[in-house]
Amino acid sequence: MRVRLWLPVGLVVAVVATVLITSFGRDPWRTGCTGPLTAPGNPTGSAAAVRKAVDESARGASIGYEVVDLSSCQVVAGVNAQQRFASASVVKLLIALDALERQGEAAEDLVERMLTVSDDNAASALWTAQGGPQIVQRMADKLKLGGVRPPKKAGQWGDTQLTAHDVALVYRHISAVASREHRQLLTTSMAAAPRTAADGFDQHFGIPDGLQGARWAIKQGWGSSAERTMVHTTGLVGGDHQYVVVLLTSWPEGMDRRAAGRALTAGIGRVSEPVSPA
């Protein structure tokens, strides 16, 4: 026997409205930073302290570092922010943006897995479907990423070259220019990144462990390229303002990635800009 439950029209409307507000009302990472990033006085900010903390933890790193206050659209700290590094999994930000623009909902499941647990198989599937290196070129042109270069070998997406400043511009785009739907999918996925990635690596080095208690949405990177070990921590960090924090590092071949990750955590722990817990 089918039981019919009749509800007052006003109650039905209220329930539907509540669901919609809960599902779509929150957009915590949205900012108004639609213009170019400025750097009054070429600030170094916390760069020296971050560099020192990385070196004290483990020697041999080349670093690229930038902190951006998205509330004012200003670079507030940085060093070697225009130096190119092999991207490792940080290029997944570009893959995700391109896939959502070109495939829409059809790409959402792969994008979510690629960003949350940093799944390489998901990245490779999207990379192949969207033209490989053409993804990098399209996004570099669209976002005006001056330091980005596609990988020399078409299948090696982790060899994409980028700078700390390029990565900051990508996060600026996500926070202020990307559609609300895309921003929510991207930031929700990155904010849900578990400690253990798909390959078993602890991906809470750097920003999550270095800025404990802060609200974050991260994309980390680790891997090897051209006889160097790459370990990167990047993300949006929320406190009184919204910030982008990017620390890219390149180490001598054979460097233990876990030790490098601990060094990044030590470095990020010295960020002195007001990226306080929300």
TrEMBL record:
<protein>
    <recommendedName>
        <fullName>Beta-lactamase class A catalytic domain-containing protein</fullName>
    </recommendedName>
</protein>
<dbReference type="InterPro" id="IPR000871">
    <property type="entry name" value="Beta-lactam_class-A"/>
</dbReference>
<dbReference type="Pfam" id="PF13354">
    <property type="entry name" value="Beta-lactamase2"/>
</dbReference>
<dbReference type="InterPro" id="IPR045155">
    <property type="entry name" value="Beta-lactam_cat"/>
</dbReference>
<feature type="domain" description="Beta-lactamase class A catalytic">
    <location>
        <begin position="107"/>
        <end position="249"/>
    </location>
</feature>
<dbReference type="InterPro" id="IPR012338">
    <property type="entry name" value="Beta-lactam/transpept-like"/>
</dbReference>
<dbReference type="GO" id="GO:0030655">
    <property type="term" value="P:beta-lactam antibiotic catabolic process"/>
</dbReference>
<dbReference type="GO" id="GO:0008800">
    <property type="term" value="F:beta-lactamase activity"/>
</dbReference>
<dbReference type="GO" id="GO:0046677">
    <property type="term" value="P:response to antibiotic"/>
</dbReference>
